[in-house]
Design goal:
six-stranded parallel sheet; 27% strand; alpha/beta; 10 helices; seven-stranded mixed sheet
């Protein structure tokens, strides 16, 4: 099969299209014929091996342990391993795994769900990691409630577009922050208000919110707290920039250390493995029309390096997907 592989950490140029063996599903695994795969910042981090702390977490100190990149996927079940009970060959599924930038990939049964009926494979592949991260940030970490005011910083990105829609689905009043060029997208997915950060500081303290989601941002926690209600909650979702060792996670660590001593709830969340129950919640919302994947553009498998370069330029409106 064809797959995008790498043998060393580095820029997108370390990725190459190569013929490799088709994986064989083990116990509890499903072999999927991949029709589309999502691209997000996590793919870049694993490709680059940055920050260095990532390598110490088991991904490979000097070189990546997993040669094939990619996490999100959507496709059809080709075969199932022992003990798999929820799927059979021919089923249309979506979810995540290691190595989705390939014609075939193996995923754990618990990381998959039936594909929503009202979206195509490319739209479905844009959902798992980003939407599950937004769901966990809002539902599990922030415990958002109907009627609350929510500020989403980074509302036009992969996680942000889902955060806006999920917060609305949970009954919140949502203000999205993005550039003027992306304001139409954020309005179209349901934001009650949109702030252009290039013309106005959304956390200058002139308005206060019950919940702030700061997605891959770099504003100091002290500034973000100025825009919270007295008992408000700040959730820092991921983080870019920062040093080589722990990247943009300095703010997250600082927020967690400060939280016990202030009235605000300061929390963090990172992209993580999800359970099929999270995907089932998202499937219900997608099929009900409450959540719609926002796909900026798609690339063929051979152009994964170009897709990652475009992602890192910061112009993406929603998600990028790889089509197979």
């Amino acid at each position: 099969m064809k797959a995008i592989v790498q043998d060393t950490y580095g820029p997108p140029s370390v990725l190459r299209l190569e013929e490799t063996d088709r994986p064989v599903p083990g116990p509890g695994e499903v072999l999927i014929r991949v029709h589309a795969a999502g691209v997000d910042q996590g793919v870049w981090h694993l490709m680059a091996g940055m920050p260095y702390a990532l390598r110490a977490m088991g991904f490979g100190l000097r070189a990546p342990k997993a040669r094939i990149r990619g996490m999100d996927l959507a496709g059809r079940v080709e075969a199932v391993g022992a003990d798999v009970t929820r799927f059979r060959p021919g089923d249309e599924v979506y979810g995540s795994c290691d190595g989705s930038f390939a014609e075939y990939a193996c995923a754990k049964e618990d990381a998959l769900a039936p594909k929503p009926r009202n979206v195509d494979f490319e739209q479905a592949a844009a959902v798992p990691v980003s939407a599950c991260t937004a769901l966990k940030a809002l539902r599990d970490v922030a415990r958002v409630e109907a009627g609350q005011s929510v500020l989403v910083l980074g509302a036009s990105g992969g996680v942000g577009t889902y955060a806006v829609q999920l917060a609305k689905a949970f009954g919140a009043h949502v203000t999205g922050v993005c550039s003027a060029a992306k304001a139409d997208l954020v309005r179209s997915i349901g934001a009650d208000e949109v702030i252009d950060y290039t013309g106005h500081d959304p956390v200058d303290g002139s308005r206060r919110y019950d919940l702030i989601l700061d997605i891959a941002g770099n504003r100091p926690v002290s500034r973000l707290r100025r825009a919270l209600t007295p008992r408000g909650t700040l959730v820092i979702v991921g983080g870019e920039g920062g040093g080589r060792w722990i990247g943009g996670n300095e703010r997250q660590l600082g927020a967690l250390l400060l939280s016990p001593f202030v009235g605000h709830r300061l929390r963090t969340v990172a992209a993580m493995e999800h359970h099929h129950s999270d995907l089932q919640v998202l499937t219900e919302l997608i099929e009900a029309g409450s959540v719609t994947p926002a796909v900026d553009r798609s690339y063929p498998l051979a152009e994964v390096p170009d897709a990652i370069r475009y992602l890192r330029e910061g112009h993406v409106r929603g998600k990028i997907v790889i089509r197979l």
